[in-house]
Amino acid sequence: MSNFEIKTIYGDIFDSIDGSSILSSALSSNIIFEYSCDSGRCGACKANLIEGDITEIKPQLALSEIDESSEFLTCCCEASSDILIDATNLSALQGIEIKILPTRINSLTLLSEDIIQVKLRIPPTSNFIFLEGQHIDIIGPNSIKRTYSLANSSSNKEITLLIKKVESGVLSEYWFTNAKMNDLLRVEGPKGTFFLRDKTKSLVFLATGTGIAPIIAILEEMDNNLAFEQTEKISLFWGNREQKDFVWSFDFNNIKVDYHKVISRKNDNWDGEVGYVQDAALSTLSGFKNTNIFACGSIKMIDSAKSSFIKAGLNEKDFYSDAFVQN
């Protein structure tokens, strides 16, 4: 077994764990780098290798041929020597502990034929703390585990999930057919680094389908935060295949949101925007030097949006994403 020292250019130091990714080693040392899917497919955990050697332990699917040779995914590589990397430790997540907790179903509400809202209660003494935008794993019957974004602000002690029906999905079948009030499940989390960084910049939110869930949580927290004074524009572009899929509507008291509904399939009863959310946003907005963009949904949408906004002048570091990975 070999353990190597991993340093960041910002002064963080931790030891590698033999056979574990750099990301896993960091998390075990309570150092939190940017990440989302932890499977090499979303690219959120991309970092730069400054010194030393690393070994790929699973395919870095999100890296393209145009990525710089020093770039790698922390969830896919382990240290094979002492290394120095350019990766930021997210201080906002310090003290937020990933836990496994029991939970019971409080309510099940069918919002459309293929979207269900699930509300869960956890023990009041659990001290479950998270940042709006993060996700959890639900451990269901037969220990099947699936990931869902939290659709509620942290001030709400009831967990809210928006769940899309997945064809042949085992846990999906449970939610839509077998789940009952008071069923006992387990929650593992919170996880992920999709959360609001800077409220002083213009904010653009892009969502497809139930990718709206973490954005609901972020916007509700901003609206509930009486200390927050909005000085910049907040824009939301939510895309769905059909009009019936817009199962959420907002009624904010303290923030103003420029809200665009976008469908990808034109029909005669729709007089709104048609196409892809990233295209709708780019045709509506301009000037991205003082903007943070938060995108949640399919990897295809996120990859396209990131590339397009960077070409339009956005700094790559101002694009944050949470990719929905089918598992």
Q: Any overview of this molecule?
A:
The model has no long low-confidence stretch (mean pLDDT 93). This protein has a 6-stranded antiparallel beta sheet, covered by helices on one side. Strands 17-16-15-14-18-19 form a 6-stranded parallel beta sheet, sandwiched between helices. Helix 4 packs parallel to helix 5. It contains 5 helices and 19 strands. 15% of the residues lie in helices and 33% in strands. The protein is an alpha/beta fold. The protein has helices spanning 22-28, 170-178, 212-224, 277-284, 299-311, and strands spanning 5-8, 13-15, 46-51, 54-56, 71-73, 77-79, 83-86, 99-112, 115-121, 135-139, 145-149, 158-164, 184-191, 202-208, 234-240, 257-263, 273-274, 291-298, 319-324.
CATH topology of the largest domain: Rossmann fold
Label the overall shape.
globular
Per DSSP E runs of 2 or more residues, the count of β-strands stands at 19
Q: What's the order of the H and E elements?
A: EEHEEEEEEEEEEHEEHEEEHEHE
- Uncertain stretches of 5 or more adjacent residues: none
The radius of gyration over CA amounts to 20 Å
Overall mean pLDDT stands at 93
Reported CATH architecture of the largest domain? 3-Layer(aba) Sandwich
Q: If strands are numbered along the chain, what order do they take across the biggest sheet? A: 11-10-13-8-9-12
The overall number of domains is 3
Derived structural class: alpha/beta
| Helix count from the secondary structure assignment | 5
CATH H-level homologous superfamily name of the largest domain: Nucleotide-binding domain of ferredoxin-NADP reductase (FNR) module
User: How much helicity do the residues have?
Assistant: 10-25%
Strand content: 25-35%
Largest sheet: 6 strands, antiparallel
